[in-house]
Amino acid sequence: MGVGAQLTVTDMRRAARHPIDHKVIGEHRRLGDVRLHIVNISAHGFMIGGATEMERGERVSIRLPDIGRIEAHMIWATEDRAGFQFERIIRLEDFMKLIDALQPNPRLRRAR
Description:
It is a single chain. This protein is an alpha+beta fold. The chain has one domain: Thrombin, subunit H (Beta Barrel), CATH 2.40.10.220. Helices cover 15% and strands 43% of the residues. It contains two helices and six strands. It has a six-stranded antiparallel β-barrel with strand order 1-2-3-6-5-4. The model has no long low-confidence stretch (mean pLDDT 85).
C-alpha cells in the first residue's frame, strides 16, 4: 500500500497555487495543537508562513472549509516557510469550493 499522494516534484510544481490568508490549528502527534498560517494552497498541498517546530516528514491534521479533516506531511522547510503535501489529492470540484470559501474576493482568485 502506497503512502501519500506519491507525486513527482514536477507534478507538484505544476499544481496551481492560490494565495490565501488562512489560520488553522493543526493536530500534531508530538506537539499537540499547532497554529499554522496557510499562505498558499493547491489540490496537492499548502505552504505556511512563519517558523514551525515540525521537521521534514512529520504529519499534521488540519480542518479546511468544504473539505473537512485532511492530513498532510511536511516535505520542505526554511526558516520562515514550510511546504506540506496532502495525503490525498482534493477533487477539483471540492477544491473550487474551498477556494471560494478561503478567498471570497473573486479579483484575488487565480483564473480558472
